[in-house]
Write a structure and sequence with these properties.
Layout lengths: L1 H10 L1 H4 L15 E3 L3 E7 L5 E6 L4 E6 L5 E7 L4 E10 L2 E18 L1 H4 L13 H5 L4 E8 L16 E4 L1 H5 L3 H14 L3 E7 L26 H7 L6 H7 L9 E5 L11 H16 L6 E4 L17 H13 L3 E4 L15 H15 L11 E8 L2 E7 L5 E3 L4 E2 L2 E4 L5 E3 L1 E5 L2 E5 L8 E4 L9 E3 L2 E2 L3 E2 L4
Parallel strand pairs: 1-7, 7-10, 7-11, 8-10, 11-12, 12-13
Antiparallel strand pairs: 2-5, 3-4, 3-6, 6-7, 8-9, 14-15, 15-21, 16-23, 17-20, 18-19, 18-22, 20-21, 22-25, 23-24
Helix pairs in contact: 6-11, 9-10
């Protein structure tokens, strides 16, 4: 806390000596506040001075007194979705008015490059369908805040960024995954949607976590220096929590979406508890209870030519699958059918965003009749055949490209896996190989690079294994 006070004192020294109001960048014109909630709004002025905050939707005025470090905080009650509205801050003769404020559904969007990837794509890595989308993306009810990259040794009080309405120019420079997520919510809910993106390409899960949370993981570097941040940047533990997450903590949100994991492939073995601790930490910081947390499983990719080729990224996908069983109000979107063998950034960002939105619509907004992801449940061995059962398979499972699949492997007690034939009958997957007369283990799509073809209700099933070898 002392470090935060020192940083804030330095950053806002000019306003601490005179009566004027300073707000974080995300409290600005065009912002979206979470509907039907008590939203925190804060800023800075001279120490111990009174600030009045007036909201046009209910003509209410709230008075707050700035603390010795100059920070003030109020909680405003928001109505059902609507707007535009205004919010006015007054301190003595000084006043600041925020205009064109909407009330709706607000989501935090975070992760590494596949969340950060703009609609215009990366060099020689386009987003599929981007041009078509840019021709029809004008929507004043979809507002987007893009936080700038900021890896920091010390906790920060603000993050650079601006709120903008969805348009051809703004969407081109905005997260494609987040955009498709927000667009789907807009279409389905019919209310304003606000998206706050704070992401950094190549970032590690550890970078988005507070130092105290990492004490449970001795594998992670515990003492961080300025040199570490300068060298490791987005991979440095705590650096993105300090620079990009902490400034946003407390902004009223409905929930969060997350697309990260590629950087953690070499450290897959503790990813599930690490990510679970991160989610718990975010929820503790926000003080909004167990808000919804939905995330993408990383897509297949051939890691052969990069430094951690010796690790099978299916092990990281397996860890990601475990997280939703460890954390309440948390679900995973599977992307096993969207990868590109030689490109770590899949073009199919529409599928990523829409599948995250599907989870939100099903589990947060409780829309009925939407498809569900099936998951591996159990296996039974009958002679030379393995019979695999799935959970959540209310309809039926099937193979995307015909009646059989070549993505299954089977092994006996020698633990040597062989390609197997697989077929489906009565919503069970049957797996067999002539080279394994007495099977004891089955794997599905458990490789770096694969195109998933086991489906349920239009959605892919995650890669899985029945062994723990």
């Amino acid at each position: 806390m002392k470090r935060i006070l020192l940083i804030m004192t330095a950053a806002f020294a000019a306003i601490l000596t005179k009566a004027e109001v300073k707000l974080p960048s995300f409290f600005a014109d065009n912002m979206v506040l979470q509907q039907q909630s008590e939203c925190n709004i804060w800023g800075w002025t001279a120490p111990s001075q009174k600030v009045t905050v007036s909201t046009s939707w209910d003509n209410q005025t709230i008075t707050a007194t700035a603390s010795p470090d100059g920070r003030f905080n109020v909680r405003v009650k928001t109505p059902a979705a609507g707007g535009p509205y205004s919010i006015t801050f007054r301190q003595g003769r000084d006043h600041v008015q925020l205009s064109n404020v909407l009330i709706g559904e607000v989501w935090l969007c975070s992760g590494q490059s596949n969340m950060e990837m703009l609609m215009k794509g990366y060099k020689a890595q386009p987003v599929e369908g981007a041009t078509e989308e840019l021709l029809s993306c004008n929507d004043d009810g979809l507002r987007m805040f893009y936080g700038k990259r900021s890896a920091q040794l010390e906790p920060q009080a603000d993050i650079a960024g601006t709120w903008q309405a969805s348009s051809t120019a703004t969407v081109r420079e905005f997260s494609a995954t987040a955009y498709f997520f927000g667009k789907t919510l807009r279409k389905s809910l019919g209310v304003p949607v606000g998206l706050i993106v704070t992401a950094y390409g190549g970032s590690a899960c550890e970078a988005w976590m507070k130092a105290d949370w990492l004490k449970a993981f001795p594998q992670v570097q515990q003492t961080i220096t300025a040199e570490d941040v300068g060298k490791l940047q987005q991979r440095c533990p705590t650096a993105l929590y300090n620079g990009q997450l902490l400034p946003l903590v407390g902004y009223g949100i409905r929930g969060a979406i997350w697309y990260q994991g590629e950087d953690n492939v070499p450290r897959y073995d503790y990813y599930a508890p690490l990510m679970a601790r991160m989610i718990q930490g975010w929820r503790d910081e926000w003080r909004q209870g167990d808000f919804p947390f939905y995330y993408c499983q990383i897509a297949p990719f051939d890691y052969t030519d990069i430094d951690w080729a010796k690790y099978n990224s299916a092990l990281l996908r397996e860890q990601q699958s475990k997280v939703e069983t460890m954390v309440t109000n948390c679900r995973m979107a599977v992307l096993l059918d969207t990868g590109i063998k030689d490109v770590i950034h899949p073009r199919k960002k529409r599928q990523a965003g829409e599948r995250l939105a599907l989870l939100a619509l099903s589990h947060t907004y409780e829309m009925k009749g939407l498809p569900e992801y099936a998951t591996y449940a159990s296996v039974e061995f009958k002679g030379d055949t393995a019979v695999v059962a799935l959970d959540r398979s209310k309809e039926w499972v099937y193979f995307e490209h015909g009646s059989k699949s070549t993505n299954f492997e089977i092994a006996g007690s020698d633990r040597v896996f062989h390609p197997a034939e697989a077929w489906i009958s009565r919503n069970r997957v049957y797996v067999r190989s002539s080279k394994v007369p007495h099977p004891v283990a089955v794997r599905y799509a458990f490789k770096d690079w694969v195109v998933g073809d086991l489906m349920h209700d239009g959605l892919p099933v995650s890669s899985f294994r029945t062994d723990n070898w």
